[in-house]
Amino acid sequence: MVGCVVTPPLPSEMRTAQLSKLLQSLDKSIPQDEVMHLSQDIFHKTQKLTKEFELTSPPLFHNSLVNIGIREKGLCYHWSDALYVHLLQKKYPHFEFHLVGANIGEYFFEHNALVVVAKNGSIPNGILVDPWRNSGKLYFSRVVEDKKYQWKHREERGCAIR
């Protein structure tokens, strides 16, 4: 079996700035340096996970490799969980992080991601962060603008709304 190894793309300043702008839109009073640091942190952790998971493309092919034991990790929930734990440890004072899922319980269609909200913000108004969708190339958008999935909060996975 031959697979393509995905080389993690370096986060361009433009993409980092785009994510920063979205994050800043959550609450204009959040310090710009915290917003930029969070944006850079998300991109750098995604790069690290891309290497750690020995990512192949497309994502569903990589899932098959994980499911048959050729790869250890790289399912969508591996991505969202790793980002969630990483960002919680960083303790960004003006942000909260939440695990979300779509098509929950549907084996071939369930998908998981992470949502960033301003402190005390709501998930529907948050920013979706999904590195799985494009094989390690970070996808991000406002939750309400993601027409591919209908996201639900994953409280049962230990992610409580405070």
Average pLDDT rating: 89
Quaternary state reads single chain
DSSP summary, beta strand count: 5
Query: What is the helix tally?
Result: 4
Spatial order of strands in the largest sheet? 4-3-2-1-5
What count of structural domains?
Answer: 1
Distance between the termini: 46 Å
Q: Which series of helices and strands comes N to C?
A: HHHHEEEEE
Question: Overall 3D geometry?
Answer: globular
Helical residues, percent: 25-40%
Largest sheet: number of strands, sense, barrel closure:
5 strands, antiparallel
Q: Spans with pLDDT under 50 lasting ≥5 residues?
A: none
Structural category is alpha+beta
- The percentage of residues in β strands lies in 15-25%
Short description:
This protein has 162 residues and is of the alpha+beta class. The protein contains 4 helices and 5 strands, in the order ααααβββββ. The protein has one domain.
